[in-house]
Amino acid sequence: MSLLKEFREFSIKGNMIDMAIGVVIGAAFNSVLDALVKEIFMPPLSLMTKGLNWENKKLILQDKVVENGSVITEEVAMGYGKLIEVGIDFLVISLTIFLVVKAMNRLRRKADDPQDVTEKTPKDIELLNAISLQLEKQTKILEEISTKN
Prior knowledge:
By secondary structure, this protein is mainly alpha-helical. The protein has helices spanning 3-12, 15-48, 80-112, 123-148, and strands spanning 59-62, 65-67, 70-73, 76-78. A two-stranded antiparallel ribbon has the order 1-4. Strands 2-3 form a two-stranded antiparallel sheet. A hairpin with a 2-residue loop joins strand 2 and strand 3. Helix 2 (15-48) packs across helix 3. The termini are far apart.
């Protein structure tokens, strides 16, 4: 099979399109969550720490040396504030994804439950449930026959 034909089959099956949609939605989701952290979560954290700007916090290892208006050595510092902000970003993103997946799983369980009448059960689940019930009845009948003999 030629490479072009394989690529065409891959792209037609939707894998590539689904992946591209996922990347675009993920990028948009990242922008929303980044704004959420910077505009919603960081200001109260800064307020609780009396106006401390976390993004600019750093541990200075070596000060900048300036003589006669020219810089002799640059400042060497470890910026831990950005790490705190990214950590909060990560926590918000992972919590949000957890809640979305949890909600999706709950909806899926409701849809797969044939006894739940609030959600319309898909036809394949109804058929599988009917087959399962019939198999259970047949098994009981066969067990009764085998115990009589």
